[in-house]
Specification:
By secondary structure, the protein is α/β, with parallel strands linked by helices. The chain has a single domain, classed as Alpha-Beta Barrel (TIM Barrel), CATH 3.20.20. It is built from 13 helices and 8 strands. It has an 8-stranded parallel barrel, surrounded by 8 helices. It is globular and about 60 Å long. Bound molecules: coenzyme A and zinc ion. Zinc ion binds next to loops. Coenzyme A (COA) binds next to helix 4 and helix 5.
């Protein structure tokens, strides 16, 4: 085996599973609450330490997640797992606190056009609300993070100037006192060069902040973008089981990077995730069954190790090509 050159990658990364929110929100047919609860409970047993379980948004905006309170009340809270929920405003934060979420994930669209379409407010108004949500979280003793949708590409405005993203992060970190900031490629427009330069610059400018990346695989660049994030020293990524996901308010958005594809790649590279891939693949199959579609590369092809095992057992004849 060829020894890999030492790259500046993190030794371990945390993967936040966002399928129950980002994934389910895109499903037209209502997923019964008990199915959501069963799948979240199954995800809790894979070694995942963070699960974004639902969102507290207007039920008319996302009818699929109108059962947010019930989901939070019915899931088993596995020890060591952080159950978070997305919120867009104070009302959502109050509901989330009442539902005893472990963490509130505020989302703000970095571009005004997407913000108006997604949340009926400008980015500036959304930031003012984020400040109030951060205060509300502090009062309630609930952790709060912020994520910037469209920060790496907006379907209406294209690529935003880096200075705009940096100014938003400055407001979040320095004015709102938020320590963890997500940078999102909501519609899969980003490329590895953009991810790397953006994340390196943000880390240089805000050395005390913890950054995470939320990547969609719409144009097949998801895992390359994840690796570019690792190159920039990012050790926190969102991903979605069975590659579910999208944004109903962003034309052309499709699924997140599949959690099992991300875990497979990272573990093969020697970057620890602490997630058991076999257990995760089993949940991915259950998700596939529950929604009637969705797939990922590893679900389709199996893991590299399965293939090697099968070859040793003489079960697989690899083609000559
Ligand atoms: N949960 C439930 N109800 C909410 C709410 C929330 N988070 N926020 C506002 N409301 C209610 C208000 O109480 C008010 O109710 P009333 O008419 O009975 O008094 C009503 O909604 C209108 O409030 P307003 O502040 O004017 O909200 P809006 O209509 O401008 O909608 C959002 C703003 C942000 C709530 C809505 O656009 C939304 O939920 N967007 C989220 C979209 C999303 O999740 N996208 C995918 C993830 S990025
Ligand atoms: Zn998303």
């Amino acid at each position: 085996m060829i020894a890999a050159a030492r790259m500046p990658w993190p030794e371990a990364v945390t993967v936040c599973e966002v399928g129950p929110r980002d994934g389910f929100q895109m499903e037209h047919a209502f997923i019964p609450t008990e199915v959501k609860v069963r799948l979240i409970n199954a995800l809790s047993r894979t070694g995942l330490r963070e699960i974004q379980a639902t969102s507290f948004v207007h039920p008319k905006a996302i009818p699929q997640l109108r059962d947010a309170e019930e989901v939070m009340a019915r899931i088993d809270r596995a020890p060591g797992v952080v159950y978070s929920a997305l919120v867009p405003n104070e009302r959502g934060a109050e509901r989330a606190v009442a539902a005893r979420v472990d963490r509130i994930d505020i989302v703000v669209s970095a571009s005004d056009s997407h913000s108006l379409s997604n949340a009926n407010m400008t980015t500036d108004e959304a930031m003012a609300r984020a400040g109030r949500v951060a205060a509300l979280g502090r009062e309630a003793g609930t952790d709060v993070t912020i994520g910037f949708a469209t920060a790496l590409g907006c379907p209406f405005e294209g690529f935003l100037p880096y200075a705009r993203v940096e100014a938003l992060v400055a407001r979040a970190v320095e004015e709102c006192g938020l320590a963890r900031v997500g940078i999102a490629d909501t519609v899969g427009m980003a490329n590895p060069a953009l991810v790397r330069t953006t994340m390196e610059a943000l880390r240089r400018r805000f050395p005390a902040a913890g950054f995470s990346l939320h990547l969609h695989n719409t144009r097949g660049m998801g895992l390359a973008n994840l690796l570019a994030g690792c190159d920039a020293g990012i050790a926190h990524f969102d991903a979605s089981v069975a590659g579910l996901g999208g944004c109903p308010y962003a034309p052309g958005a499709t699924g997140n990077i599949a959690t099992e594809d991300a875990v497979h790649m990272l573990e093969e590279m020697g970057i620890a995730t602490r997630i058991r891939l076999d257990a995760l693949l089993e949940v991915a199959r259950q998700v596939q069954e529950a929604v009637g579609h969705a797939e990922s590369a590893v679900l389709r092809a199996g893991t590299s190790r399965m293939l090697l095992g099968a070859r040793r057992d003489g079960q697989t004849k690899l083609g000559a090509s």
